[in-house]
Amino acid sequence: MTVLLIFAVLAISALLLILLAVPRRRASAPDVLQLRAVDVLAFRNLIDPTEEDYLRDLLPPPLFISIQRERMRAAAGYIMATLHNSGVLVQLAQIAALNTDPTIAAPAKQLIQLALRLRLLGALALGKIYLRILFPGAPLSVGGFVERYHHANDLAGQLVRLQNLSQNDRVPAVL
Pick from 39, 48, 64, 153: most CB atoms within 10 A? Predict the structure, then answer.
């Protein structure tokens, strides 16, 4: 009985420590300064099949494999940044979706759907990129992901302009 009581006290103490250690989420607007910069043109270049074919023809196979792996690691970094940014976009859009003005709420709801879909596609694209790191010649494409991210960027910029947020010029520039 004493052992059971000691375990119960330890379990409750551990739970309280965990609850105190976990930071609470604020209901305020997401900080757009948390967005990570993504150079869409550079990202497109990294995953462009024509660029890959050019490098394959130009370089000896061992050097091509080495460079292709580096390019895919850089692409993985861009995808991880887009995954992070799409999470911030979901938060931004969730707040805007509560707006009573339908010209703001409608694009916000569209952005929520797009950003959530983008997160799923980003996870799949990241898996493909990691496969391409292991197998540099694998014919796996992630081009559609870049186009959807670009579309989400445009929609986020439109939503921010509609809301006249004070940081409206920072969101599209960072995305």
Answer: 153
**Count, residues in the chain:** 175
Q: Find tokens 């799923």 and name the residue.
A: 120
Indicate the domain borders of the chain.
30-174
Q: Contact 112/97 with Cβ under 8 angstroms? A: yes
CB 88 within 8 A of CB 32: yes
Q: Are 31 and 174 in contact (CB under 8 A)?
A: no
> 130 is written with which tokens?
């990691």
- Calculate ∠ Cα 61-65-71, nearest 5°: 140
Question: How far are the Cα atoms of 59, 109, 132, 167 from residue 103, in angstroms, in the given order?
Answer: 53, 11, 42, 19
pLDDT in tens, 114-143: 888 888 888 888 888 888 888 887 777 777
162/160 Cα distance (integer angstroms): 5
Distances (CA, A) of 45 to 21, 50, 125, 130, 143: 43, 9, 15, 17, 10
Q: Is 164 left (phi over 0), alpha (psi -120 to 50) or beta?
A: left
Q: Where are the beta strands (DSSP E) in 48-159?
A: none
Candidates 70, 94, 75; CA nearest to 159 is 94
Entry pTM: 0.70
